[in-house]
Automatic annotation (TrEMBL):
Name used for this protein in its record: Haloacid dehalogenase
Record-linked InterPro entries: HAD-like_sf, HAD-SF_hydro_IA, HAD_sf, S-2-haloacid_dehalogenase
Organism: Actinoplanes ianthinogenes
Pfam families attached to this UniProt entry: Hydrolase
PANTHER family for this protein: HALOACID DEHALOGENASE, TYPE II (AFU_ORTHOLOGUE AFUA_2G07750)-RELATED, HYDROLASE, HALOACID DELAHOGENASE-RELATED
Key words, A-Z: Hydrolase
SUPFAM superfamilies named among the record's database cross-references: HAD-like (SSF56784)
Amino acid sequence: MLRGVLFDLDGTLGDHDTSVHTALTAWLPTVGMTADPETVEHWHTVAEKHLAAWRRREIDFAEQRRRRLRDFGFSYDQATLDDIFRGYLTEYQNAYRSYDDAADALAAVDRAGLRIAVLTNGSAAQQKAKLARMGLADLGPVWTPDDLGTAKPDPGAFSGAVARWGLRPGEVLSVGDRHDLDVLAARAAGLRAVHLDRWGAGPMDEPHRISSLRELADHL
């Protein structure tokens, strides 16, 4: 029997991509760069590269930020790089918004009498601040690699979160926008999973696939 729904945050409840684009549009000119499509795409590519290294626990969270800036051509000491990144981070946090279908999904889960928690790859302080900005500070437990010592797609992240929740894996449904991180890894840990494929990127043969969180009620 299903007892809880474990949501991803960025790209699932929160509109990370729009927030990044808004932040880059405001921040890049302050560091002498233009927020053209090529530069924005490069930012996404660089971010994923170094976040992947952080997820593998090869570097810490602050270092992945510094490496992103170095790949953008900033050759300064650590303190200066941290200061530069804070400029971007301020714009990103100010721009962060929830998706307009998030409230509907959370309401559906609540009506079904299920518990809610969040499992997110990010620093605990930053991710909890995002939820607070979205008005979801009291949503439920929030687990990050800071708490668990491991990050998605390690199935151990899901196992650790479920154990802390006091539930069994088969009683929990994982919902997220990354098929590799939120679906396959969750299933490897014994959870059920639904793929939120907002942009129709697939995989198209995924049997539990939704294009909006408003469709989640059908999987509860």
